[in-house]
Design a protein that fits this description.
The complex is a heterodimer of chains A (106) and B (159). In chain A, the strands form two sheets. Chain A has a five-stranded mixed beta sheet with strand order 2-8-7-4-5, with no helix packed on it. Chain A contains no helices and eight strands. Helix content of chain A is 0%, strand content 53%. Chain A has 106 residues and is mainly beta. Chain B contains two helices and nine strands. In chain B, the strands form two sheets. In chain B, strands 1, 3, 5, 6, 8 and 9 form a six-stranded mixed beta sheet that branches. In chain B, strand 5 and strand 6 form a beta hairpin. Chain B starts with a helix and ends in an 8-residue tail after the last strand. Classes of the chains: A mainly beta (106), B alpha+beta (159). At the A-B interface, strand 5 and strand 6 of A face strand 6 and strand 7 of B. Strand 6 of chain A pairs antiparallel with strand 7 of chain B, so a sheet runs across the interface.
Chain lengths: 106, 159
């Protein structure tokens, strides 16, 4: 089951501003909640998200426990050239996920 | 003859205890349940340093009344031409009353075209949200929004 959902337009005109939407399946456990017996549930969050466009980093985000579960992130970029978007999520307990999407710029 | 000695000893102990108490207070109040306004100010100072933070240019869209603090849609945008000479370098979002003052840091480049970032956040209480943008010329711009939360995040128990 893919844990990431990416929404990138398949085609765009050169210079058009496009929206990129990403959703990662993750519990984002804050580290502040307790079980019924009073024990703190250890923190388990995604700490970093980044997006590269043909190898160049165009967007990066530091995440904190204040980001809701299943972090949704959307941002805009100028469609300059055809190519590949690569997405990286890094988190606690060695969490690491990648995803990619392609765009054709006319 | 012993009386004055013991009373000075008592005074000394009281003073020492008081001093220790004073020293302990900040430690005690730094419990992780609340980010205080000072923690918010410190977190902002960590980002801005000694620079002046101007009001304006940045816009924060959050519903003013939130039913469920576990997932609150948030959109932050900055009016910027986004040219190689004049673009938004980073955006930092803070809160007042969650256990930690930080919500998220966003790092952008000149190729963004439009600065408009959406995500979903958690809010532990009715509070003020602050967003600060750093432009490519090094200037800082901020805005803040007050949000009322009826069901708080973070506090519920897991069974």
């Amino acid at each position: 089951m893919p844990s990431a959902l990416i929404n990138v337009p398949a085609k765009a005109k050169r210079g058009e501003i496009i929206e990129i939407k990403t959703l990662m399946s993750h519990i984002m456990e804050t580290g502040y909640r307790r079980t019924a017996t009073g024990e703190i549930i250890p923190r388990d969050i995604v700490t970093s998200f980044s997006c590269r466009y043909n190898g160049v980093e165009i967007f990066r985000m530091d995440l904190f426990p204040a980001i809701a579960a299943n972090p949704f992130i959307s941002f805009f970029i100028v469609a300059a050239e055809s190519g590949k978007f690569e997405f990286d999520w890094i988190g606690d307990r060695g969490f690491s996920e990648t995803a990619s999407a392609f765009i054709t710029v006319e | 003859m012993k009386k004055p000695e013991s009373s000075t000893r008592r005074q000394f102990l009281r003073l020492a205890g008081g001093a220790a108490g004073l020293g302990a207070i900040p430690v005690v109040t730094l419990r992780p349940a609340d980010a205080t306004p000072e923690m918010l100010a410190n977190a902002i100072r960590n980002v801005t340093g000694a620079n002046v933070v101007h009001p304006g240019k940045i816009k924060l869209d959050i519903p003013p009344l939130v039913e469920n603090g576990n997932t609150v849609p948030m959109t932050v945008s900055v009016a910027s031409p986004m040219t190689p000479d004049d673009y938004v370098r980073s955006i930092h979002v803070f809160n007042e009353k969650n256990p930690q003052p930080n919500i998220g840091n966003f790092y952008l480049g000149a190729r963004g075209g439009r600065v408009q970032i959406s995500t979903r956040i958690r809010l532990a209480d009715s509070q003020k949200i602050v967003a600060i943008a750093q432009l490519s010329d090094g200037s800082f711009w901020s805005t803040s929004v007050d949000v009322i939360v009826t069901l708080a995040a973070c506090t519920e128990e897991v069974i």
